[in-house]
UniProtKB/TrEMBL annotation:
The lineage of its organism: Bacteria, Bacillati, Actinomycetota, Actinomycetes, Kitasatosporales. GO terms for molecular function: DNA-binding transcription factor activity. GO terms for biological process: response to stress. Pfam families: MarR_2. SMART domains: HTH_MARR (SM00347). Transmembrane segments: none annotated. This is HTH marR-type domain-containing protein. It comes from the Bacteria. Residues 28-127 form the HTH marR-type domain. InterPro entries: HTH_MarR-typ, MarR/SlyA-like, WH-like_DNA-bd_sf, WH_DNA-bd_sf.
Amino acid sequence: MPADRRPLPQLLGEARRWFDQALPAALEAAGTTPLTPAQTQLFAALDDTGTTVAELARRTGVTRQSAHQTAHSLITAGLLEQTPDPTSGRRWLLRRTPTGDHAHHQAVHALATLESHLADRLGTETVTALRTALEQDWGEPPRG
């Protein structure tokens, strides 16, 4: 890689931070309580029918303890609720509350608006190509 080019992971991280900064600002402007990046990531990983803490930890790449703490903060905020898993007597599912559903829909709308702003700045073709590349199955990371 030429010395004047920054590593791709650094560029991806900066792009992620752009969204992590823009989304709370957009939600606050819409009158929704902004969430931390960790809360947003966990909230976005939920299934509509409910998701276990263990599954949320796997999907977001954090420890179960970290996912549990973040989920608890969202329960305290009234955005999530914990309900028994109908398929297992030992597991609990996290689901959005009606307030959480409203916040989720506002976040989806805000993200679409941010993506539109990004397309205005970078060009629709560039954003489409970026999305296409990121949606591909990259396979398992090389081992050495």
